[in-house]
What does this fold into?
Amino acid sequence: MWTGIEAAGVVSRGERPGTLMCALPPGDFNGSAPTRYSRRGDIPGSLSLPGRGLLDGTGWFLPAAERVGTVLNGDESPVILYCGGGISAAGTALALTLPGRQDIALYDGSDEEWCQDSSRALAAGT
It folds into this structure.
């Protein structure tokens, strides 16, 4: 399922139930690493679940418990995944569906779109 910037915004502002999850590496998520996007940081209210951290050394998905760990903490609200432009988020979405999770949407505009508008909030250092 696909979703857009409006849905990510209402979840970020707490106007609709949901969990925003960023599939970028930790430095991109918290704004400590240089980025190709116009601004650094994450969409406010997001959790970090780096896509590359879901794979073992040979490129296979880790077992479900290792993949998701305690990030969702049993949260049953819908999940919106994003990254820089949708690629890492797509792999993370697949990883979350393997154990049966179905309430997942991909915000493919991701940081590429979100960061273009300076009126959209970013959280850094979270």
Summary: Residues 87-97 form the longest helix (11 residues). Residues 2-114 form a domain with the Oxidized Rhodanese; domain 1 fold (CATH 3.40.250.10).
